[in-house]
Amino acid sequence: MSVIEVENFQPNLAARALVTRRSEIIGAAIPTNENIFFADNSYHPMLLAGMSEATHERDYALLLWAGEVAFDDKRWLRKISNKHLMDGLIVASLVDGHPLFAYLLNLGMPFVMIDRPLRDQDRIHYVTVDNVQAGEVATQHLISLGRQRIAHISGHLDIGDAQDRLKGYKAALQKAGRPIDPDLIYEGKFSRVAGYEGMLHLAQHKPDAVFAASDTVAIGVLRAAHELGLHVPDDLAVIGFDDIDVALQSNPLLTTIRQPVREKGAKAAELLIDLIEGRLQGIQQIILPTELVIRQSCGGISVGV
Amino acid sequence: MSVIEVENFQPNLAARALVTRRSEIIGAAIPTNENIFFADNSYHPMLLAGMSEATHERDYALLLWAGEVAFDDKRWLRKISNKHLMDGLIVASLVDGHPLFAYLLNLGMPFVMIDRPLRDQDRIHYVTVDNVQAGEVATQHLISLGRQRIAHISGHLDIGDAQDRLKGYKAALQKAGRPIDPDLIYEGKFSRVAGYEGMLHLAQHKPDAVFAASDTVAIGVLRAAHELGLHVPDDLAVIGFDDIDVALQSNPLLTTIRQPVREKGAKAAELLIDLIEGRLQGIQQIILPTELVIRQSCGGISVGV
DNA sequence: ACTAACTGTGAGAGCGCTCTCACAAGATGA
DNA sequence: TCATCTTGTGAGAGCGCTCTCACAGTTAGT
Q1: Is B164 helix (H, G, I), strand (E, B) or coil?
Q2: In this complex, do A251 and B246 lie within 8 Å of one another by their Cβ atoms?
Q3: Could you tell me which residues come within 8 angstroms of residue A230 by beta carbon, excluding any fewer than 6 positions away?
């Protein structure tokens, strides 16, 4: 032991990995070819922070596979699915139909998704929140505030979470005996630009409230409302989703559905490592709680910074 | 070749690494124990995006070492300095005096710093911008606008970039024959909270302009000014640094010094890989250009979104 | 005192690659 | 035709670990 200390001996991890067939490395893939990653959105960075923390806590290392990757980038697919490099993979925001999904499924390398997958749900480990219920709570909040023409700007509908939030929106309206007006639903993406464009488009149908699929989208809505001369919350109530930092920087402060983004990342990493180490059997599907955070953008009670 | 294709053969990278003594993995360390990482600041995510892109372009993989790490976390230090795991390391925002610095220096593993190091400058590869000159340009801009009491809220002065921006601020004042008033200099950190507190503190000395060490800091200044009833830019001109996305979300839009953050990350990765592969000899120090971006927060010409 | 069980140490195989070297087979020039 | 050079193929060593197994040394039980 003292020799190890004095000589500063570093075990050769490649040699160890060769015989144990474990690299003690996991990967985090965010295979989006939209610029939602890192651009105007702290959702993915927060996710990553959670993963990073939990991964190092368990003495694993975290490989990052991010950036704008072409769907058919064979080189990337080959490398990311190399089970000799990584013991497992976390995949976030995977768009339905992405080839990575099929690759991983018949590769046998354990992987955990963040967000509910749209296919093979009974075979996939994932961690997410109850987006349907959360979408319902958000919409119900707007209803309870007396709003009559409640619009929704969705996220990318090839992502389970976006579908579920839309589902929740519809469910809340139906439970309140309200009609579902297709004119008040804008199919967007998880970006500020989509929120901005969505609001400009919806304006002709005179909504008095908008449930935005994410805080980033809501920021775009706020800007569009400002340009349209609509006062928030008097003329237009706006509710977001995520409760990332922009919700606390906006004017007015954003009412939103808080989801524990950092914890999602951390849980995914812990789950994956448990799976790798054989400590867990069967398909694991973790649903984390959400919470309605009331601030200024819907009227009602105002909670400070 | 056809057999490889049919059998979907994956070479065992651990075995390869064992004999070649190359893992084709590089690390990215952001060893900050402040919460500037990922919290309200897209600087580091952007940096990471640049690194990630360049790394995969060169067919390497990127290990992420981020999060709030205790200075004396031996486990972390041991793992991050394991040269069998990584061929090299990029270190961003390393605070002066951090033990990682000494570790790396006598380890022999190639590493590239982002930001100018405060010690052993002639032995360290790094990539940064000319912060002195940029700080001078920012301050000079405020002077040319007729501002009389120009304050500066610095970043963490244990980081070279923060020191250099302060240096540039002082240089501009001196060249203009202005006195340097210590009351108008607030030693802060690269965070929104520091900007907010700095501005509240500086208010007693009645500045009519603030050069903030980063856009994030400037956002904090903007909020404090709002609370103090100061109108930006009429009562107070504010200039930031970075030109990250918050500069385009603020109200008023932020005048700032743009630095190519993504390119910094990308260049660092490319440089490191060139170093690893022996394609480059001698100490490499890359200075990228900056640019004054004039928007609304200093008055003068206003450029739209 | 003899056997049975436990503890510690050392030798050796093998993980799946890369790299070198020997040798065979084919191409080139006198 | 023979010597030289080029190209291709196959065998074998070795990278630095982990794991098993044998054997020596020690302790416990009858």
Answers
A1: helix
A2: no
A3: A203, A236
CB pairs under 8 A between A and B: 127
DSSP state of A125: E
Report the C-alpha gap between B105 and B122 in whole angstroms.
Answer: 12
For residue A64, the surrounding DSSP H or E stretch is strand A61-65
Q: Answer yes or no: are the C-beta atoms of B31 and B91 closer than 8 Å.
A: yes
The Cα B41–Cα B215 span in angstroms is 9
The nucleotides of chain D lying under 7 Å from a protein CB are 14-19
CA atom of A19 to C1′ atom of C7, Å: 26
DSSP assignment of A154-212: ---TTSHHHHHHHHHHHHHHHHTT----GGGEE---SSHHHHHHHHHHHGGG--SEEEE
A52-72 pLDDT tens trace: 999 999 999 999 998 766 666
Residue A83 (CA) to nucleotide C10 (C1'), in angstroms, measures 34
Q: Which of chain B's residues have a Cβ under 8 Å away from the Cβ of A46?
A: 38
Residue A98: what pLDDT? 87
Query: What is the 8-class DSSP label of residue A233?
Result: T
Amino acid letter for position A206: K
Tell me the three state secondary structure of residue B87.
Answer: coil
**C-alpha–C-alpha distance, residues B64 and B94, integer Å:** 15
Classify B199 in phi/psi space as left (phi over 0), alpha (psi -120 to 50) or beta.
alpha
Q: Give the C-alpha separation, A41 to A190, whole Å.
A: 9
Which of the listed ranges A45-49, B196-200, B248-252 does the model predict with the highest average pLDDT?
B196-200
B99 close to A (CB below 8 A)? no
Q: Do A62 and B67 touch (CB under 8 A)?
A: no
Between the alpha carbon of residue A269 and those of residues A131, A244, A287, B29, B113, the distances in Å are 21, 20, 15, 19, 28
Give the Cα separation of A214 and B27 in Å (integer): 32
Residues B215-242 as b or e (16 or more Cβ within 10 Å = b): bbbbbbbbbbbeeeebebbeebbbbbbb
Interchain contact B52–A (C-beta under 8 A): yes
Whole-number average pLDDT of chain A: 90
Pair B153, B241: CB distance under 8 Å: no
Q: How many residues does chain A have?
A: 305
Assess B249–A contact: CB distance below 8 Å, yes or no: yes
In order, the DSSP letters of B3-14 are: HHHHHT----HH
How far, in Å, CA of A150 to CA of A21, rounded? 54
pLDDT in tens, B94-142: 888 888 898 898 888 999 999 999 999 999 999 999 999 999 999 999 9
- Put simply, whether B103 touches A (Cβ < 8 Å) is no
Beta bridge partners of A104: none
Q: Which residue has the tokens 């922009």?
A: A246
- Tell me the average pLDDT across A209-232: 95
A260 upstream amide cis, omega within 30 of 0: no
- At residue B231, the 3 state secondary structure works out as coil
Q: Which residues, listed in sequence order, are joined to residue B34 by a DSSP beta bridge? A: none
Neighbours of B249 (CB within 10 A): 21
Say which amino acid occupies A50.
G
Least Cα distance to B262 among B26, B44, B59, B31 occurs for B44
Q: Are B62 and B87 in contact (CB under 8 A)?
A: no
A262, containing H or E segment: helix A261-276
Length of chain B: 305
